[in-house]
Amino acid sequence: MAPVFPPPSGPQRAAAEIAGLTHRYGGKAALDGIELTVPPGCMAGLIGPDGVGKSTLLGLIAGVRRLQEGRVSTLGRDMADPAARREIAPRLAYMPQGLGRNLYPTLSVRETLDFFGRLFGQGAADRARRIDMLLEATGLAPFPDRPAGKLSGGMKQKLSLCSALIHDPELLILDEPTTGVDPLSRRQFWDLIDRVRAGMPGMSVLVATAYMEEADRFDWLAAMDAGRVIASGSPAELKARAGAATLEEAFVRLLPDRPAAPPLVIRPQNASRGRTAIEARHLTRRFGDFTAVDDVSFTIPEGEIFGFLGSNGCGKSTTMKMLTGLLDPSEGEAELFGQPLRASDIESRMRIGYMSQGFSLYSELTVRQNLALHADLYHLPRDRRQARVDEVLDEFDLAPLADRMPWDLPLGQRQRLQLAVAVLHDPQVLILDEPTSGVDPVARDGFWHKLLSLSRDKGVTIFVSTHFMNEAERCDRISLMHAGRVLEVGAPAEIVARHGADSLESAFISCLEAELPPDPAPAAEPAALPVAGASGTAPRLAGMTRLWAQCWRETLELTRDPIRVFFALAGPVILLLTMGYGISFDVDRLSFAVHDQDRTPDSRALADQFTAIRQFAETPPLTGIADLRARMGRGDLAVALDIPDGFGRDLTRGDRPEVSVWIDGAMPFRAETARSYALGVLSDYAAASGAGQAGVNIETRFLFNQSFKSAHAMVPSMMMVILMLIPSIMSAISVVREKETGTIANFRATPVARAEFLLGKQLPYLAIAWVSFWMLFAVGRGVFGVPFTGSLGALAAVSFLYVFATTGFGQLISSFTRSQVAAVFATAVLAIIPTVNFSGLILPVSSLDPMGRAVGQGFPSAWYQQVTSGTFLKGFGWAEVAPSAAVLAAFCLAYVALAILGLRKQEA
Amino acid sequence: MRSLLNTLRLTLKELSAIRRDRVMVVLIIYVFTAATWLVSNAASTEIRDLAVAVVDEDRSPLSHRLTDAIRPPLFAEPEVLSPAEAARAQDEGRYVLVLSIPPGFERDLRAGQAPALMVLVDATAMAQAGNGAAFLQRLLADELQRYADPGGGASDPVDVVFRNRFNPNLTATWFTSVMQLMNNVTILTLILSGAAMIREREQGTIEHVLVMPVRPHEIVLSKILATGLVILLASISSLVAVIHWGLGVPVTDSLGLYALGAAVYAISVGSIGLLLATFTRNMGQFGLLVIPVIIVMLLLSGGMTPMESMPAWMQVAVGIVSPAPHFVAFAQSVLYRDAGLALVTGELLRMAAMAGVALAVVLARFRKVLAG
């Protein structure tokens, strides 16, 4: 295999020194009193089963996790000291666990590297040179424009590595970099690391891995178990100490109190009953113009373990999904025990147990609840359910974990739970998509014990995909898939023989290499990666470069999601149009009816006064009080006039007859308006009959909106509502999305300051929101004809401040919440209520009671409403908007400051 | 039967998902308690304690008398300001109404010269400007009448008695509290149900659900049922505890019928939430789509401004796409007008029909959207 680099001679500080390190998650210790010195300038590895604290330890060394107890010094700097962390960040590179989890799926290869270059403050020319060099060296040069999300697993890992190497780190920390990657890509990955190290001899590399064969070629290893380091030294030393031939064996023996698992014996398959369990004929599946699976056929007899190998993205998962009925094939057909398989077929689903690649059980249910849910949904006999759940808990050693939440379990145990769920209903066929990816060797063996017993004892047919060659060797037959096609099918030994190879791995690789163009990385040039040399950008300038990097990336990501941009720009305009036409206080056509018991010309004259104005729409006269009650009860009648018998007679006598006006009070605003109209009618009536108002003329003048048009008042206020809600919901996603997808790791592991990160991400939303302001302004002027009397410059400037504040509000929520759902929910709930009710949309802030006013003024929208309404209708200029502008600026600062406080640079 | 059991089982699962999400639970509680109380109490369109300023350039006994006539409960105690102060204050939106009494007003009146009083109205405050001005005008007219004819009764030829059915004092809280409750139901149900769908896809659990022997309609119904149940319980408790006990709004007589309507409404809004979720791919898109929908449903429901004041075509359009106006009509009839089931069946059926249409579309798109 690859050459082993001896540690460079000469005195050098340790790559990392760790003393008394303990780390707890919710009271449970993940690391327990670690004492460790990682030697410098070599390949150092952390090995151990899942959940022993490897990732936590790496995170602490990289400074992305907050130190709780003990001391960690990385490259001689104390990681508890924020200043030291800032200083050391440019000398470290950290690649988190998970295939491509720190990549941005919509960014192209070159854009990704450009982004990372900027994060380290590199200038354009410097960056371009380094990127070319890295792409050349890793063989990614032919695909600079391919989005990261569309790369195969191996290429994603190479790209992640490039982004880690762009700034010539002194310490490279890799957390399970090859998990879930096929053997060929894995080999290429390690060759690349070797070449990098040849070019940068001083660089230390610290790797966590579950692959013992990889660990075997490291210079130094630390074996971990249950939060402690149980042994450290070179692989040879460890093997010698345990007296074992292989590292895997040595590791198992070094475990203190774990009984050695019985060796895995591959029992031969029972005599086949000759039935065909799964038959695939010419299966093809296309997504758009991409063919994921291309004319695949195979037959699997009952009780067989059929292995499925292939590089990432070759169509394995798609084939498996077609066999479970999750996807319908574009062409061809699949049969299960002779029955055609269709997506809607409930019968066949009872016969299949499926385990998807990622964890797909409910994270909000406990282990037992997940099992119970499946027992119910598969309708096991009612009296058997409880017993079956207990049985499975025992069988898969999950009983002690029954009340834990799935995400609190290490990956290996989670996968066991998924398998337990898949077999709960005793299916005849199991379809398992990379069930052991990321699972440590001990747990993997346990897993295969279960599979073998299912196959050999219960006759279950198992269709399993894997990247582990030793697992593939345990299958009865395997098939090799590449680029949607099946290249090979047969027993493992047959395939090795057919290729004249010495192992299945080399057979697999030679088979793939025949298909692939040769790896473009020139293996002949060992020192392909010369050190690019330090780049000297002034610190302040570097800060601006980093801020700009965040802004540029957020903009790219936004433009790659055109639906979001469309909603962000069209949503406000549509809202304004709807609201401008829809919300109106011009109460018109109130249904009106008369109950005239007098029927004289005098009573008719009074009734005519009411029906003469357009605000009252006459409906058929009332027949009595019962009729009035019924019609008003149905909501058909808003106002009724009741004229008693003898009205005309009393009026003529000057006896002031009494009439009643009935108003439907169910909606108070409408009732008050109806009352004021009725008062107006009665005044006119009084004036007409000669009773004056003592000779005074009371004149009412409507200021700012002479025509008293609702649209004129509503449009400026609606701008306030829209520019609050849409921009804040847009930016509310920004930070929390990174937390969910894992790209937040780049923020934690690089020298980006919190303010740079937040402001950079806010700028694109700010720009969209400001464009949106201009669009709303144009609609208000053009469509609704709202007059504009004030200073446009002042409005535009204050609007900028306002959308700065509202996008800042979204980011504030985003930095505090953990999930996108919670962020959207919290933003909507917290913003809608004060904006709609307490900011002057319906009611002027001045007529709110003190509490409502306080709520309104505690939010930017109430201040902005004064400015929109003032500049549109009241002729406000710079001087009048200045106080509001100052308050809004304070909101901007406060939101940004709080968001910075809420965003942690380190994980717990 | 089997289908029913599956739906119930999945509903229980959804309920435990909601229970585990602490942010959601806190927000739901906040919205149905503090927020409901705050909005009902603090924001009302009724004319009460309206801010009024008086520019008294006459400073005569009559002008003082007029100023004194402006009193609570309709108006706040008026501030006497100089013309310049009043103009600035009204610019700043501090007073909706300013009464201007010209110099020599009383003298001119006594001289029979018909002087003019001026009421300046800030017409940007639409909800209160019109009615407030009308009431102030009426008040001034009455006061002047008493001044002109101290011993005599009112001069109006007829004596008009106003009777407000269903809400005798036109207490706005009666109305705004219930409308606020409806707004909360709308906001929460839309987001909760839509998020339940999107989360299933983003967390990958939908892959598992689709290989289980459950049918899409069971999954969809379980989400609606779970969301509807939570929201319904929260809103009924809020109606009783916050609105009835806390704010003293008489609503309990028809609680049963109201609960039925609220259930139908929650289901129809939940269906619309799911429908929106099928048109978006991630939470970012969903958030941007759901906000305008919420705002339209809130503001064009008849709960904020009267339905009558919308253009006729828009009343029809909103009535077709949004269940909110139907629920507002239903709630007003049931809670205030004591209408029985027979009177509101039409509104219930309309809401149910909307739920049906939305669910049909969701089911038609289900597999394509979630698995694709």
Would you list the SSEs of chain B in sequence order as H and E?
HHEHEHEHEHEHHHHHHHH
Main beta-sheet strand count, sense and barrel state of chain A: 6 strands, mixed
Q: Quick one: which chains have the greatest interface?
A: A-B, 157 and 149 residues
Poorly predicted runs of chain A: 1-11, 521-528
By secondary-structure content and strand pairing, the structural class of chain B works out as alpha/beta
Strand elements of chain A, count: 25
What percent of residues of chain A are in strands? 15-25%
Count up the helices of chain A: 32
- The tally of domains of chain B stands at 2
What is the average of the pLDDT values of chain B?
85
Order of strands in the sheet with most strands of chain B: 2-1-3-4
Radius of gyration of chain B: 27 Å
Overall, the morphology of chain A is elongated
Counted beta strands of chain B: 5
Number of helices of chain B: 14
Q: What is the alpha-carbon Rg of chain A in Å?
A: 37 Å
CATH class of the largest domain in chain A: Alpha Beta
Derived from helix and strand composition plus strand pairing, the structural class of chain A reads alpha/beta
Instruction: Please tell me what the overall shape of chain B is.
Output: elongated
Q: Report the major sheet of chain B.
A: 4 strands, mixed
Protein described:
The complex is a heterodimer of chains A (908) and B (372). Chain A is an alpha/beta fold and 908 residues long. Chain A has four domains: 16-254, Rossmann fold, CATH 3.40.50.300; 276-515, Rossmann fold (3-Layer(aba) Sandwich); 542-579 and 708-902, no CATH class; 590-687, abc type-2 transporter like domain (abc type-2 transporter like fold, 3-Layer(aba) Sandwich), CATH 3.40.1710. Helix content of chain A is 48%, strand content 17%. Chain A has a six-stranded mixed β-sheet with strand order 6-7-8-3-9-10, with helices on both faces. A six-stranded mixed β-sheet of chain A has the order 16-17-18-13-19-20, sandwiched between helices. Chain A has a four-stranded antiparallel β-sheet with strand order 2-1-4-5, covered by helices on one side. In chain A, strand 21 (590-596), helix 21 and strand 22 form a beta-alpha-beta unit. The longest helix of chain A is centred in the last third of the chain and has 32 residues, at 710-741. Chain B has 14 helices and five strands. Chain B has helices at residues 2-20, 22-42, 61-69, 83-91, 105-110, 126-148, 172-202, 205-211, 216-246, 255-278, 283-299, 312-321, 324-336, 341-371; strands at 52-56, 79-80, 97-101, 116-122, 159-165. Chain B has a four-stranded mixed β-sheet, with helices on both faces. The longest helix of chain B has 31 residues, at 172-202. The two termini of chain B are 30 Å apart. The model of chain B has no long low-confidence stretch (mean pLDDT 85). Classes of the chains: A alpha/beta (908), B alpha/beta (372). Chains A and B meet through helix 11, helix 12, helix 20, helix 22 and strand 24 of A and helix 1, helix 2, strand 4, helix 6 and strand 5 of B. Strand 25 of chain A pairs parallel with strand 4 of chain B, so a sheet runs across the interface. Chain B: GO terms for molecular function: ABC-type transporter activity. Chain B: InterPro entries: ABC-2_transporter_component (IPR051449), ABC2_TM (IPR013525), ABC2_TM_bact-type (IPR047817). Chain B: The chain crosses the membrane at residues 21-40, 174-198, 219-245, 257-279, 286-306, 348-366. Chain B: Belongs to the ABC-2 integral membrane protein family. Chain B: It is found in: Cell membrane.
